[in-house]
Amino acid sequence: MRSQVVGIAWIIAVLVVMMGWYFFSMQQEKKMPRDPSESPAEVDSLNKKEDSVYHSRRKSAVSNTQPTRYDKQQPPTAPLYTREAPPARKQALRVELNTADTTTLQLLHGIGPAYARRIARYRERLGGFVSDTQLLEVYGFTVELLEHLRPHLELNGEPVRRIAINSVGLKELSRHPYVEYYQARDIVNLRTKGVVFKSEEDLRAVPSMADSTLRRLMPYIDFSE
């Protein structure tokens, strides 16, 4: 009888240890990111790289104010991303940049999971694309890849998320890829002095605001009070 009690006690002890180990493992798994792109440090690093890409191309000849339309009669002078023809099922594919999720973006020839996540993340930071050339601000994106994809990209005029320039906070304003921290600080400081921004000219009066930045930023500005 005593041996049976001891045996049951050992079984219970083993079960308790196993359950404790299971719950400990689950907690550790929850703390670990399943994908490097989901790590806060990785996201912050990628955001900095995208900002670096944007600032390095700020003074380039590429304009983000108007989309460049692809003309089959005048192919791009730059070499394509790849000379390999897309699969037949992808040749007629059209993807709307502001509504496509990461799964849909991966249907594009040359776009894998990493690029799809970067495009979706940068689109969220921007508030939406107003030009296909803004893809060049995505970390790792090249002119060749953009020209390769252009026949399959669409922008159907989906409204972008706008910044309420007369009420937005410093932290939120400085998160936008086109706004430096010191520019956001100057805007907020002017507001505290009673300045109300009503037009592009009012923003141009901000001492730290460059014209090149303002041109890209204007589609995202809401001047309502």
Keywords:
225 residues, two-stranded parallel sheet, mainly alpha, two-stranded parallel ribbon
Number of domains: 2
Average pLDDT over all residues: 77
Order of helices and strands: HHHEHHHEEHHHHE
Biggest sheet: strands, sense, closure? 2 strands, parallel
**Radius of gyration from the CA trace?**
25 Å
Q: Let me know the number of strands.
A: 4
> What is the helical fraction, as a range of percent?
40-55%
Strand order of the largest sheet: 1-2
Separate helix tally: 10
The low-confidence runs, each spanning 5 or more residues with pLDDT under 50, are 26-37, 58-83
Summing up helix and strand content along with how strands pair, one would put the structural category as mainly alpha
Strand content: under 5%
Architecture overview:
By secondary structure, the protein is mostly helical. The protein folds into 2 domains: 38-154, no CATH class; 163-222, DNA polymerase, domain 1, CATH 1.10.150. It contains 10 helices and 4 strands; from the N terminus they run αααβαααββααααβ. It has helices at residues 2-31, 40-56, 88-91, 102-105, 113-126, 143-149, 170-175, 181-192, 200-204, 211-217; strands at residues 95-96, 153-154, 163-164, 221-222. The protein has a two-stranded parallel ribbon. The longest helix has 30 residues, at 2-31. It is flat. It starts with a helix and ends with a strand.
